[in-house]
Amino acid sequence: MLKELDNRTEKYFEAIRENKGYIGCNHGWYGIEEILAKKSPGTEVKLVKTYPGYFNSDDIKIYKYWLEGDRFCAEIAYQTDIDDFNIETHIFSKFPSEKDVKEIRSIMELEFDFKFNRLNPEFTCWECGHKVHWLDFKGKIQDKIDNLKEKYCGC
């Protein structure tokens, strides 16, 4: 059963997405070139940057195209099974840095964990026993995520 995100977390995720110009994501067997060829024939797509990928993925490719304004697509392909794969196409209205792409993927993963009750936004610190919200921590998003997963408040 899916859980709703708490307001604080939802607003935090919305602010990050808005700040990075994040529009949305597709998952499937087709990259941005194939998607646009079907949905918007004649749209020119240009590879503008490549970032190192993850351990089990291809490089992160950044494409630029015009569709109701400049759009940028961060495309990541990886194997999901012995004979299957997934291509993620993350769409931005601003040119995404490598950090932007990785942070967006991190919050998507975290959102999934919250919604499927793998993690809770509030937890009791294993060291001091205080009940805290994962956003109570100062610092970068990855530090907040690490503390949440370790159930450590930084006391």
Structural class: alpha+beta
Form type: elongated
Poorly predicted runs of 5 or more residues = none
Q: What's the domain count?
A: 1
- Helices and strands, in order, run as HEHEEEEHEEH
Using only C-alpha atoms, the radius of gyration works out to 18 Å
What proportion of the residues form beta strands (DSSP E)? 25-35%
Percent helix: 25-40%
Give the neighbour order of strands across the main sheet.
1-5-4-3-2
Biggest pleated-sheet summary: 5 strands, antiparallel
Distance between the termini: 33 Å
Number of strands: 7
- Could you tell me the mean pLDDT? 93
Number of helices: 4
Note the main attributes of this structure.
single chain, 155 residues, alpha+beta, five-stranded antiparallel sheet, two-stranded antiparallel sheet, 4 helices, 7 strands, 32% helix, elongated
Explain what the structure shows.
The protein is α+β, with helices and mostly antiparallel strands. The chain has one domain (7-119). Helices cover 32% and strands 31% of the residues. It is built from four helices and seven strands; from the N terminus they run αβαββββαββα. The protein has helices spanning 7-20, 32-39, 98-115, 141-150; strands at residues 22-28, 45-51, 60-66, 70-81, 84-92, 122-124, 131-133. A five-stranded antiparallel β-sheet has the order 1-5-4-3-2, sandwiched between helices. Strands 6-7 form a two-stranded antiparallel sheet. The model has no long low-confidence stretch (mean pLDDT 93).
